[in-house]
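Hi everyone, sorry if this is the wrong subforum. Our group has a chain we'd like a structural model of before ordering constructs, and none of us has done structure prediction before. Sequence below.
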Amino acid sequence: MGVDVGDYLKQYLGDFFGVYLFSTFKVFSASLVFHFSLGILFHYSLESYPRFKIKKQIPLLLLYLFAMDLLGLFHSIILYPQIYGEFFFYRYSSLSSLLYFFTDHFSPDFFFYTIVLILSVQLANILYYVWKEKTKLSFFYLTTILLILLFHRFGSLYPALAFIAVFPILHKLKDRIHIRTYFLLIPFLVFLFPFPFLFDSLYGTFTENHKGKPPVILISADSLRYDKLGFVNGNREITPNIDLFSKDSFVFHDHHTTIPRTFPSWADLLTGKYSMTHKVRDMFPSKAEKNRIGSKEFPTIGQKLKEIGYKTSAIGSFAADIFPRADFGFDEVLAPNFNAKVMTLQRTAESQLFLLPVVTGSFLGGGDYIEEMDGLSTWGDGKRIVDRLKKVVRKSGKSSFFLTYFSSVVHFPYTPAYPNYKKFTNPDYYGKYKYLKFVDPTATDKLNSEEIEQIRGLFDSSVYAFDEEFGAIIRFLKDKDLYDKSIIILTADHGEALYEDIHGQGHGEHLRGEAVTKVPLLIKFPSDSKYVSLPNREFFGTTSSVDLFPTLSDYFSIPIEQELPGMSLLGIIGEKDWANDRVVYSETGIWFSDIGDHFFQSQRIPYPNILELHQVVPEEEFQIMITDRNFQETIAFAKHRSVQNSRYKFIYIPTRKGVLFELYDRKNDPLNTKNIFPTGAIGLSLKENLYSLVKKWEDASQAGEYLLPGTLRNGDL
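Answer:
Right subforum, don't worry. Here is the predicted structure as tokens:
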């Protein structure tokens, strides 16, 4: 017809045509590489027995590949059933009983060791053939197997594809390769397997020892509630490692995040300034907004520590995808990215049922074939990021380092790996919340008590899984003789509502209750610090996440050139409360949906749902951003805001019909069910405090009782 199909699709799909094409190519390339590798291993193993003819091998090969795919699938769905939740509960719900059967009756070890046994027998057979024959052909077999094992071990997708492309040529030329070449090549390939670990170890031995500059390790769990800690609630099973750590730490019992959304919360913590000041107020900041983080006006604590000789690193799972998206001051970021390309590739890969076990490591590696899968929200295995932390620490050697570790396992959909997802859940519950719980802001269905308890059990199981990560880190630091030398900080970016009263599930939509803003803060100082000898280790006054920047600056005598809203906590170490009452500030995040019957939907300034607000920006690596300035200001104007002291919480709620004010007694009414604002003068005092604070830090003005956010100035863009 004279029309180029590619041009038509390009016009129809726009910039996303290349994204779709790349995603499809990468997913099916990973499948090709894996099955080629399995096929070659099987073929060479059979070739060691001359009685097997090629005609017999083809049906055996197909049967073998299918059997290995099934073994990998069974192993993976027991280890990570959450990854397959959509397949079994939404696409083919009639098959969910199969998932229940495997997770109830099998351990993943059974299938894992079956896979290992099969592969080991084949590899041993090939090695015996090489030892027995010592021919060019046998050495070619061994070299090929070593290469594909290396590609699989390190997830080297593109080198593996190149090898597959030239393999027919190499196979034809195998008799021309001198046998001495194999004597050099085979030992070299064998040496490459442990080489990365050896390199990391050697690298650390040549680092400079900075005396007086202890390692700073900031450990955080997304959505970790303060009241879930065992030493707080009396449950000795849920956080045994954190409970033990608390005995060496200073515990801040009334610590609050400034905003219960991950990106702005971390921006506040690391810059020491409110989101209303630096303008990163939601999960989808524009280029102009995110570029303010790490600028001269908004330096981060990582940048300040780098100035005095520290190396800085950030490590995390899917919720840590904020770190590659702005300059938080880290020299190295070992965390997934978040953009439309990554999301597209993940969705493409999730449709390939037999590929998921490969890219999640069921076959002794392969997880890096598609590195974008690292950001999969249903993959809550913390072991892989703990291993990254260990690698960074080994590389750091004796140098001073600032390491931020951010775990996502406690973030919804609450996805701890086997066996932790069974820890606090009901074994007799069989429903769509057996393994995970997504948050759907538009959901209007009412959950029964059994479903709510199951979801809370999943959350508690996730907290337990994080505690295991934390324990593994602490044990490693002790083994490396770093625990006593380090400043170790444990906290969270925000908490989580879990169907208390009418609060629903999730975070960022409202400020009612204690669960969403109140998070842990534990600080352990080096054993030679002057603070260690202080007898009192518990502080009960209100503290804020913006206090960490001035606290670390104070500890290292780093001059602060600008006024900060937070306070150094060093001055009250050893005390139980502030000398004068202190209030801390919080605000809501962005509302993702504009529908639903949640109470906060009737208490808000309306704006469109997130699908209408955001834009995919190709020139910014297809990041998802809210770029419309009118929407940016509407989102800021609509936010609920609060200040709270040790006794009361005051909430400012702008609506279309005027501003609502709520005041709650935190001690006698922790769920915030009874608004006492109209009954006394306490609320008026806190109201005045909130208004003056917002006017100061946001350059806001007042129209009636509405707070009008300061307009983004041209110089800020």
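For your construct planning: The first strand starts at residue 216 and ends at 221. The chain is about 45% helix and 10% strand.
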